[in-house]
Design a protein that fits this description.
Elements: H1 2-8, H2 12-28, H3 32-52, H4 59-71, H5 75-83, H6 96-107, H7 111-124, H8 129-144, H9 165-181, H10 188-202, H11 214-225, H12 230-236, H13 247-256, E1 260-261, E2 270-271, H14 274-289, H15 298-315, H16 331-346, H17 351-366, H18 371-384, H19 387-397, H20 403-406, H21 409-415, H22 421-452, H23 457-469, H24 472-489, H25 493-502
Antiparallel strand pairs: 1-2
Helix pairs in contact: 1-2, 2-3, 3-4, 4-5, 5-6, 6-7, 7-8, 9-10, 10-11, 12-14, 13-14, 15-16, 16-17, 17-18, 18-19, 19-21, 21-22, 22-23, 22-24
Length: 534
Amino acid sequence: AGMALYKIVPKNPYYFWSVMSLIMQSISAHDENLSKTMFLPLAERMVAKMVKEDKIEAEAEVELYYMILERLGKYEEALEVIRGKLGEKLTSELQSRENKCMAMYKKLSKWPECNALSKRLLLQNSDDWQFYLSYFDSVFHLIDESWTSPAEGQMSLEGDLDYTVEQTVRFIEEQVTGASKSSRLLRGPYLAKLELIQRLRQRGCNDEHKLGEPEDLMFQYFIKFGDKPCCFTDLKVFVDLLFPSQYTSFINRLLGSLPLTPPEDSEFALPADIKALQRHLCVVQLTRLLGLYHKMDKSQKQSAVREMTMRYRHGLRFGKSCLKTELQFSDYYCLIGAHMLLDLWDNGEEWAVWHCLTLLEEGLSNSTSNAQFKLLLIRIYCVLGAFEPAMELYSSLDAKHIQHDTIGYLLTRFAGSLGQYAAASQACNAALRFFHSNQKDTSEYIIQAYKYGAFEKIPEFIAFRNRLNNSLHFAQVRTERMLLDLLLEADLSTSLEESVKSMSLRPEEDDIPWKDLRDNRDLTVLFNWDPKDR
């Protein structure tokens, strides 16, 4: 159809639709040999013809050419396209051209170019984390290959590069110095220093001490960024650099730096503003992550829960002006207190679970849109066998689109086993509606992608549709729904017979792709501050 249209109205999009359909044939061909020898080379020739005739107009057309060359494994040619005149059209995404160059350098193991390009981009923006990673990857490849600089000419196509540990340490130190003078707070260089220590330690190099002690670096990072919510998630990645013997002293050092005002009527020193609260909260999260709360005995845990509850209630005063949809600043105190109570419940303390429920319900009444409170409450109510509150909480989560597949199990898994057959049937129907409508929706996305020339998204949409069709949850919910129908509706033998007939079950034509089923549940959706060994 694309070629027929192109012959009538010679417009580029029509021509490239037919090129794209060749790529799609190569993707869906079961014989890889066929796609490498027939479909892709044909697509390549069609685009090369347009390039030769200088008819390439749009960025999407260059993207398509790159996509074909990459799938054919012609990485050198792909690199030439991006670095050449055609590459100048790649403008819609930030650093689209550089990212594609980097991908090709990695495929071709051109580590000098990879390193020089990363270094150049970091000098332009020393906060761009992805380029630190490619910088480190390439440096260590060069060290392993004992790469040396050529006697004359430039070091690589992309300019100067670093190829020893000393140069790398110096470069990172320069970035940190630059960041300390910057008018804007930059996190990248400080985290890059920790990342470098981690990599040197994994390789057994003794150069890491040149960069400083991890404990000091993390402490300095906390002083700079502790009042930002991202501080905990940044440091979380690097806590393995601390030795267990340092945990307590590190936490005490952090606590010592906090700007808390001595209490008048409470037993704890409390924060005077939101920034101080955020700093203390960061320390509490790190304490939990390092396992210090897990090592406490029963009475210590109880007083820690009391402290969390009190800090939570005190912190509510900072969120009085928050909108209904916003979260309270002190919500995590409440959540961590609930986690501690669940630890106690794990150890056989029956009262702790009821205490936990009341604490979470109190949290939810102050912060009505906090999904973490709702998810944890759903789990606890279901474990206790109380399904109705779980049902209400789940519907208030207002799960949209793909979430029916990723978190739908929280409801469907318990409803039937807790004897809530009508609710189970409703939950299954809601999930099935999503799976069925997705078939129609995805076709719409694909049509739009053709229309606007977003060619590289088309295989992604098709892969997305297949992943949903092969969802384990979809297969389970379909089967479950049939069983529920039989249980609920077929109370007479005649209606039973009709029900079974209407399901048109033919075992020999079973359409559930058992071999390809995918478990798409999101098991990381609940926040967790447990150490690795738990």
